[in-house]
Amino acid sequence: MTELMQVTVHLYTILQRQTPDGPQRQLVVNLPPGSTIADLITTLGITLPIDAILVVMNGRHTETSHRLQPGDHIHLMPAMSGGMQH
C-alpha cells in the first residue's frame, strides 16, 4: 500500500466548505505521492474553473500543474475579475 502525503489547504470566500459548525477555512488532505495542485482541487470537489483559482503554495504563487510535497501549505482563492469602471 502506498503511503499518502498530507498537505494543509486554506480556502477563501466561496471555496470554503459549509459545515453544520460554519464555514471550514482550513483542512488537512491526504493525497497519493506525486499529486498536483490540480489533483488536489479535483479531490476537494471544487467546481470553479481551474483558471479562475489563484494558488499560493508555501508563500509563492504557483501553477496548478505543480507537484505537491508532504507538509505543503496551499492557499486557494477565487481569482478576482474585472476592475474599476469609469
Question: What does this entry look like structurally?
Answer:
By secondary structure, the chain is mainly beta. The longest helix is centred in the middle third of the chain and has 7 residues, at 37-43. It has a five-stranded mixed beta sheet, covered by helices on one side. A two-stranded antiparallel sheet has the order 2-3. It is 8% helix and 37% strand. It is globular. The chain has one domain (12-27, 42-86): Ubiquitin-like (UB roll). The chain has one helix spanning 37-43; strands at 5-11, 17-19, 22-24, 26-31, 53-57, 60-61, 73-78.
The total strand number stands at 7
Number of helices: 1
Helix content: under 10%
How do the strands line up in the largest sheet? 4-1-7-5-6
Output the structural class: mainly beta
Q: What is the CATH topology descriptor?
A: Ubiquitin-like (UB roll)
CATH architecture: Roll
Average pLDDT for all residues: 88
Question: Proportion of β residues?
Answer: 35-45%
Provide the gyration radius in Å: 14 Å
According to CATH, what is the class?
Alpha Beta
Q: Report on the biggest sheet.
A: 5 strands, mixed
Compute the number of structural domains.
1
Order of helices and strands: EEEEHEEE
Ranges with pLDDT <50 over ≥5 residues?
A: 82-86
How would the global form be characterised? globular
